[in-house]
Structure formats: C-alpha cells, structure tokens
Amino acid sequence: MSKKLSIKIITLFPGFITDFVESFGIVKRAIKLKLLKLQAVNLRGFGLGQRQVVDDRPYGGGVGMVLRSDVLYKAISKQRTANRGKQRVVLLTPQGKQFQQSDAGRLAKYDELVFVAGRYEGFDERVRQFVDEELSIGDFVLMGGELPALVISEAVMRLRPGVLGKDESVDKESFSENLLEYPQYTKPEVLRVKAKGKRVKAMRVPKVLLTGHHKKINEWRHEEALKRTKKRRPDLLQK
Length: 239
Ligand code: SAM
Prior knowledge:
There is one protein chain. This protein has helices spanning 14-23, 25-32, 69-79, 101-107, 146-157, 214-232, 234-238, and strands at residues 5-11, 36-42, 55-56, 66-67, 87-98, 112-116, 133-136, 190-194, 200-204. It is α/β, with parallel strands linked by helices and 239 residues long. It has two domains: 5-168, Alpha/beta knot (3-Layer(aba) Sandwich); 176-237, Orthogonal Bundle (Trp Operon Repressor, Chain A), CATH 1.10.1270. Strand 5 (87-98), helix 4 (101-107) and strand 6 form a beta-alpha-beta unit. The radius of gyration is 23 Å and the shape is elongated. The structure holds S-adenosylmethionine. Residues 92-95, 117-119, 121-123, 136-138, 140-145, 148 line the site of S-adenosylmethionine.
C-alpha cells in the first residue's frame, strides 16, 4: 500500500468534487501532506463531436437520457493503470452492493480508487462490464453518483494512516467490531433543562466517567456499546 491514496471521480459535475476539497480542512491537510489526491475527471471531455455529447435516448423508448457506453468506456479506460491489483474502479448505482464500513476498510487498501458517477436515468448496461464492482449507498435514488462517491471516499480516506489528527481514533467506532459506539459525553457535567411543566431537570454525565478509573470506564463503555447495539441494531450482533 503506497503512502498516498489517489481518488478519481468521473463526473459531469466536477464542481461537486472541487467544492468538497475546498470545504474540508482535514481533506486539504491530507492533500498537502501528500497522503491523498482527490480529483474530478470531467466526463464531458470524453463527449462526442463539437457538442461533446455524453448521453442519448434509451433504446426501446422511455423517459430521460442514458449515459453512453462508448463515452464512459473511453473515460474509464483512460484512468486504468497497468497494475489492476492496486486500483479499483467502482460504479455508483442504487442497484449495487450496499456499502458498509467493512467495504471502507477493504477499499482503503488500494492505491487508487476510480468512482464512476452516473446521472439522468443512469448509464448504458454495458458499462457494468468495464468496472471492478458496483456500490450503492442505500435503498433510495439520488440524482447523481457524485454524493455517493464522496460519501464512500470520505469513509475510506479517514481510515488511511495519518489522514485524521492524532486525537481521533477509528478503532472503537461504530461498526468497527460489529458494535455501535458507546455513548459519549463532554462538558458540562450537569445540564439543566426545562422539562414539561417548567420543572428543571438535571441531566448528569454518568458517574463512572468522572472517576478516572480506566478499567471501570472501559468495562462500562463495552457494556453500553453492547446494550445499545442490542437495542438499535441487533442484526450487527448476529454477525
Ligand atoms: N434509473 C436508475 C435506477 O433506477 O437504477 C437510477 C438513476 S439515478 C437517477 C442517477 C445516478 O445517480 C445513478 O446512475 C447513480 O450513479 C447515482 N445514484 C443514485 N442513487 C444512488 C445510490 N443510492 N447509490 C449509489 N449511486 C446512486
């Protein structure tokens, strides 16, 4: 695994990607430290003719436009590196495998990720054969693959060594051991809020967290993580 993760997003809207890079300090820092490269590849540049056409009507009729397979083939082939073992080309589609934290861990091991973001009614079916895998971010339909590509990129990049600051840890987070994370608290120690009927309610931080007793705190956190997972996501415990 090389030190730098390169991410390319093939898109008709490169502004989505540049805005993302510009908006996030952690991403900018990772780029500056040469841990990350995040680029948009403008699909329009592979379009046909003077008008750089990228889509057409679906054969057989129907509403909307479909991204052309020849245009996407050119765009994807241009990104392919000789060493396919170190590169993964991912098509974003609601019909793909649902993205999970374990996929983030798996994708974080590659040197280069290429995401293909669809638009309109999607893409010509033949495009599926030019990619290594298909991912969805959930059972809902968005207008384009840019946000799914960025969602997956963010989940992946934060697992790469050095991308997060020293204070942030990824090993005890939700899903890392098929558990949700334990509850977190910070100041104030007592939060007073007006409850119904104007009675003041004191919401206190659990006492064990104030003891400084690390063994007890860890036991409490593990218990809470278990309880919380059992209540909210029992399916994770089955795993
Ligand atoms: N007609 C397509 C279908 O029913 O499967 C949906 C096309 S959608 C409007 C346009 C593009 O947005 C898709 O090609 C895909 O790249 C992206 N997209 C939408 N929802 C997504 C999801 N849940 N996960 C990943 N990509 C999604």
